[in-house]
Amino acid sequence: MTTARTVLVTGGNRGIGFAIAEEFLAQGHRVAVTSRSGHGPAGSLTVRADVTDAASIDAAYTEIEATYGPVEVVVANAGITRDTLLMRMSDDDFTSVIDTNLNGAFRVVKRASKGMLKARFGRIVLISSVVGLYGSPGQVNYSASKSGLIGLARSITRELGARGITANVIAPGFIETDMTAALPEKQQADYKRNIPAGRFATPLEVARAVTWLASDDAGYISGAVIPVDGGLGMGH
């Protein structure tokens, strides 16, 4: 039986983040989600926060701590895309994606680390993407932001590993979401042909990898990149 923890999932109001929050709740944890709009799953505490704003992150943590106590598990999932080819990509297209996906994760983790150091326990899980290692045309900004999370996790591991704190990366591939469902049938079939598993993942499959990394069983795993991609990115 895993110890019940206080968990924060950023961007927990939809998609993979929502599924992660839901699975933590199902396993008996106290769950808070940050969101700029909408709500997390029933039973979670939704706090308004913008990961590009350190003051807003601090206020969110203060609210969570007042309700549930210090955050013991943080899942940095909030992310955006602004896809376009390199030659057409504006400075703002690049910097806004980096500021949300990479700098946002830094802000969220930095604020959580204070309580984790005090408790000598912490689980940090950063949601990257197969694209962070595999690359993708039209996603120079997104790929760079997701790749940067790996360096972040590995440096945190070296800094905080002796204090009972782990930092790991989950790299999902194609996931069954509203976004993939909206793709034309032929495009979906083309993508699936490149995936050894021959299908997209369910959000729950990603969520269970996250909850396992946050569990007592995974205390000796840190600085790892766990792909949940059906074999798409092997060797990358």
- The CATH architecture can be given as 3-Layer(aba) Sandwich
Reading the helices and strands in chain order gives: EHEEHEHEHHEHHHE
Number of E strands: 7
CATH fold call: Rossmann fold
- Count of all domains: 1
- The proportion of residues in beta strands is 15-25%
* Radius of gyration from the alpha-carbon trace, in angstroms: 17 Å
Structure annotation, total helices: 8
For this entry, what is the oligomeric state of its chains? single chain
**Structural class, judged by helices and strands?**
alpha/beta
Instruction: Note poorly predicted spans.
Output: none
What is the name of the CATH superfamily? NAD(P)-binding Rossmann-like Domain
Taken from the alpha-carbon principal axes, the silhouette is globular
Q: Roughly what percent helix?
A: 40-55%
Termini distance?
34 Å
Sheet with most strands: strand arrangement: 3-2-1-4-5-6-7
Sheet having the most strands: 7 strands, parallel
Overall pLDDT score:
95
Brief write-up:
By secondary structure, the chain is an alpha/beta fold. It has helices spanning 15-26, 54-68, 91-119, 131-134, 140-160, 178-181, 185-194, 203-213; strands at residues 6-10, 30-35, 45-48, 73-76, 122-127, 165-172, 225-228.
